[in-house]
Design brief:
598 residues, five-stranded mixed beta sheet, six-stranded parallel beta sheet, alpha/beta, 14% strand
Length: 598
């Protein structure tokens, strides 16, 4: 069983059937200081009446019984709820202890009771320690060398711990000790838990000995299977190796200026773990998708197919800044030359990013958040800093930054997604905010616009045009100037033209006698010259078309990217320099929105 934030990188069964795993029945990823991460669970050779079957069924059964007996549990001072990973840990812990226990779900967080709670559970496992229960207290430890087929230059891990233990069907032996929390279940089952157990019995397979019947204690103890935490090379987390760059196929096996031609490594160098599990990534859970995008583990064909679903099924568009009126949002961006400059400090970069965001909000455009080069001096930190982020392992703040390697470019275009805009609220479109695009999304949008232009170009060879047309078709659009083309879809829905336009530098210079622009004034000037309010704040196709007509943009647009002012509204508007904007007080209103001071 795998969570959706797990990326398979190598043949799993080669390692799951290795000698040290052959006798294991239940294996999971290890989380934190020794608890189960149920994002990766593997079972094999399971007896229907054994401890593995019991543990997996008990996850559901215990939660059902608690939910239906919540008043009983509350009266005894115990919670009637628990999150999945801790419940998995407690049910497996019960099989290792030989009796049902609820160490984690009922953990005593107050200092007055915590020490006694820990000691009571330590004694269950026969230790004389007094601290928190950890894997070394209930499992046997070992160490194994890292497999040769899962190694890479500079990879910091050479061995992995291996923790195993014997599981048995647990039994209360007629006792619910008060120091372990007392009676775990209400006296009677409710209808849901009864139905669940009857459903299991209906399979016709033997059931495990009843853990609440003392007469079946010996039978339960006789049922033995092996539990194991997977070695790290089977399942590693973002903080262990993903942030170091080893999940990035275009970075593995080389360094900037060598190994793979023009500034990159040999593509597809061997992975260092069979499974890559995000677990915790910068900016929150939504960025588990961002890591897939940034590391080259993303399929845009699938993303576009899903985006074509009806809005009620989540099909508003392929980007976080998409909405049902504008699946492909209008965007305000910095030029690639400006984005790639040697930003002198994080403060300078942050100020430029905030300037782009302030202006895009006033214009109804999604901000294409710039991604600075990872090898800037203020980006390089940590124990691997000597490499300068020009080779693996990378040396970035893995709790804040997400490296981004565009497919096929390797270290030559290695950028970092900055922690200041990684929160979901900075990206998702809302009625008052036109959203933002992260660098992988923006690069894909530009590629999509290029595909449209190239497919329509008369000088294209038939084969090249057919290939680009096929890609556009997979993304939900026809090719060329036909009615279903990207160009016509934009024109007939949002009123945008499928163009990328660069704002002339002189247009960004402050008015005569002024040191900086008022953000409203600059936004108004740019909108007057480039087709009006962007699609991000136009909440329906009808509103988008009305805005298009009001701006005089009534006809389809042909041609490639260009510069200069136009009454047409380009889908991408590019700034070649950072505009100078007047500062505002924190939470001071500008226009009809509120902006923080940079």
């Amino acid at each position: 069983m795998l969570d959706s934030d797990v990326i398979p990188q190598a043949d799993l069964y080669t390692h799951l059937k290795a000698p040290h795993m052959r006798n294991t029945t239940l294996a999971t990823m290890r989380d934190g200081n020794g608890w189960i991460n149920c994002g990766v669970v593997y079972v094999q050779n399971v007896a229907p009446d054994g401890p593995t079957a019991y543990a997996l069924a008990e996850v559901v059964d215990r939660l059902e019984r608690w939910a239906e007996g919540s008043m009983f549990l509350s009266a005894h001072g115990n919670p009637a709820h628990c999150w999945d990973q801790q419940m998995y840990s407690d049910t497996v812990l019960s099989t290792l202890a030989g009796r049902p226990i609820s160490y984690g779900c009922w953990f005593r967080h107050d200092a007055a009771r915590r020490a006694a709670w820990d000691v009571a559970h330590q004694r269950v496992f026969g230790t004389q320690e007094t601290g928190p229960l950890e894997n070394q207290h209930y499992l046997q430890g070992g160490s194994l060398p890292w497999p040769a087929e899962l190694t890479a230059a500079g990879y910091p891990y050479k061995r992995s711990d291996l923790w195993t233990g014997e599981m048995h069907v647990p039994n209360t032996r007629g006792e619910w000790p008060a120091e372990l929390g007392g009676q775990m279940y209400p006296p009677e089952r409710g209808p849901s838990s009864r139905t669940f157990i009857e459903l299991l019995k209906s399979d016709g397979l033997p059931m495990w000995p009843d853990p609440e019947d003392p007469n079946q204690a010996e039978a339960g103890a006789a049922k033995m299977e092996i539990f194991s935490f997977l070695p790290q090379w089977m399942a590693e987390s973002w903080s262990q190796a993903g942030s170091l760059g080893y999940w990035y196929p275009d970075l593995r096996g080389g360094s900037a200026g060598g190994g793979g031609g023009a500034g990159g490594p040999t593509p597809g160098g061997q992975p260092t773990a069979a499974l890559a599990h995000m677990v915790h990534v910068p900016g929150g859970a939504s960025n588990k998708l961002t890591v897939k995008l940034a590391s080259g583990n993303w399929d845009w064909d699938i993303a576009h197919a899903a985006a074509r679903a009806p809005p009620r099924l989540g099909g508003s568009g392929p980007f976080l800044a998409s909405n049902s009126a504008a699946p492909l949002p209008d965007v305000l961006a910095y030029s690639s030359e400006l984005e790639g400059r040697a930003w002198a400090s994080e403060e300078e970069f942050a100020a430029a990013t905030l300037t782009l965001l302030r202006l895009s909000m006033e214009m109804g455009r999604a901000a294409a958040y710039p991604a600075p080069r990872c090898n800037l001096s203020w980006m390089v930190m940590g124990e691997h800093a000597a490499g300068g982020n020009n080779r693996l392992p990378l040396a970035v703040n893995h709790g804040v930054m997400i490296p981004y390697a565009p497919p096929g470019r390797g270290f030559s275009d290695l950028r970092c997604l900055w922690g200041g805009y990684l929160l979901l609220g900075c990206q998702a479109v809302r009625w008052y905010f036109s959203g933002g695009l992260l660098a992988p999304e923006y690069d894909h949008l530009l590629d999509r616009l290029r595909q449209e232009g190239e497919a329509a170009a008369a000088q294209d060879s038939q084969a090249a045009a057919a290939a680009r047309a096929a890609k556009l078709s997979r993304w939900g659009f026809g090719s060329g100037a036909a009615g279903s083309s990207l160009r016509d879809t934009l024109r007939n829905t949002t009123g945008s033209s499928a163009r990328v336009v660069t704002v002339p530098a002189e247009m960004l210079q402050p008015p005569a006698g002024a040191a900086a622009w008022d953000v409203n004034a600059l936004a108004a000037k740019l909108m007057a010259a480039h087709g009006g309010l962007g699609s991000g704040l136009l909440r329906s196709p009808a509103a988008a078309l009305a805005a298009m007509k009001a701006a005089g943009n009534n006809t389809a647009v042909s041609g490639d990217s260009s510069s200069g002012a136009s009454s047409e509204r380009p889908v991408v508007l590019v700034l070649s320099e950072v505009p100078k904007l007047t500062e505002v007080d924190v939470c001071a209103p500008t226009g009809n929105r509120t902006v923080q001071k940079g």
